[in-house]
Specification:
It is a single chain. This protein has 297 residues and is of the alpha+beta class. The protein folds into two domains: 2-158 and 291-296, Ribosomal Protein S5, domain 2, CATH 3.30.230.10; 164-287, GHMP kinase, C-terminal domain (Alpha-Beta Plaits, 2-Layer Sandwich). The chain has helices at residues 59-70, 94-109, 116-127, 133-138, 176-181, 189-208, 214-217, 224-227, 234-243, 272-277, and strands at 2-11, 20-35, 41-47, 77-84, 141-146, 152-157, 163-170, 248-251, 258-263, 282-287, 295-296. Strands 1, 2, 3, 4, 5, 6 and 11 form a seven-stranded mixed sheet that branches. It has a four-stranded antiparallel sheet with strand order 8-9-7-10. α1 packs across α3. The chain starts with a strand and ends with a strand. The relative contact order is 0.19. Bound molecules: L-homoserine. L-homoserine (HSE) is lined by residues 11-12, 17-18, 129, 131-132, 176, 179-180, 223, 253-254.
């Protein structure tokens, strides 16, 4: 068996709605081997993966099969065993980890005929926006979008060494679909300009390592104001985390995980007291940015 490792990811990073994401040192694993029988599929799971669908409807298998459809080839038989550590529906890219795992395994058993851009285009069919799938595949901080033909473009940045990330992963899920339904379809020119300037400063900070800029550059007017009410205690968490040394606090992806960024290591575990007021239990933990994406290990 070979083993594929796929990182968790955060998306948006404040102002970069659907356009930027970053990989973390939390991983899903897929042990796999091809089977010499067309369409054969044997899926098993271990660890924390009780709710995983082990039929051919499984998202990892669907992404695997989509690579063969893209190449107009019959689907090669496969055995896959899943070890999932990225929590489901929490804003840490669990579905992107599944999609990238599936397309990478398919590419591997085929002898790697597809480029990274092609793999992203196949995965994009399921996700619609590339901000989690791109860092899950490539690692690091990845700016991404869709070109005039609807194909993925991207550019990767190595995360600054002193960027320290803490996540608050609450015990309740939030469906991305629900978190997208609360967003308006139109925005004022003022809010658009607000985000464009901050996104530019965010990219600059990622390149230069000038993290002080993040206190302004991770603010957002396109999604966070509309999603705050879905994330229990966030209003209170933001000033409290800043008082403990955070440069900024934002929603990780569509939430409900909260991302806290600081310049070097800081301890935010005391924020549990605020969450307790909202009857929320949560895991507060550091996740380190990683520069390597999905890979055989
Ligand atoms: N950019 C996406 C969102 C990430 O915020 O809805 C979650 O898939």
């Amino acid at each position: 068996m070979k083993r594929m490792r796929i990182p968790a990811t955060t998306a948006n990073m404040g102002p970069g709605f659907d356009c930027i994401g970053m990989a973390f040192d939390m991983y899903n694993y897929i042990d796999f081997e091809p089977v010499d029988a067309e369409d054969y599929c044997e899926l098993t799971s271990g660890g924390d993966a009780g709710h995983i669908d082990l039929s051919k409807d499984n998202l990892i298998y669907q992404a695997y099969a989509a690579v063969f459809a893209y190449l107009k080839k019959p689907v090669m038989g496969i055995k896959m065993h899943f070890e999932n550590n990225v929590p489901y529906s929490r804003g840490l890219g669990s579905s992107s980890a599944a999609l990238i795992g599936g397309v990478k395994v398919a590419n591997e058993v085929l002898g790697n005929p597809l480029s990274d851009t092609e793999l992203l285009n196949v995965a994009l069919q399921f996700e619609g926006h590339p901000d989690n799938i791109a860092p899950a595949l490539l690692g690091g901080v990845v700016i991404s979008g869709l070109d005039e033909n609807g194909d993925v473009f991207y550019s990767k940045i190595t995360p600054p060494a002193n960027l320290y990330c803490t996540v608050i992963i609450p015990d309740y899920p939030l469906a991305t679909k629900k978190a997208r339904e609360v967003l308006p379809q139109q925005f004022s020119m003022k809010d658009a300009v607000y985000n464009v300037g901050r996104m530019a400063m965010l990219i600059d900070a990622m390149h230069t390592g000038n993290l002080e800029q993040l206190s302004l550059a991770m603010n957002d007017k396109l999604h966070q104001p509309y999603r705050m009410s879905l994330i229990k205690g966030m209003d209170e968490i933001i000033p409290a985390a800043k008082a403990l040394g955070a440069l900024n606090v934002t929603i990780s992806g569509a939430g409900p995980t909260i991302l806290i960024v600081s310049d070097g290591e800081k301890d935010f575990t005391s924020l549990q007291e605020i969450l307790a007021k909202y009857d929320v239990t949560a895991k507060i933990t550091a996740l380190h940015p990683v520069n390597e994406g999905a890979a055989l290990v």
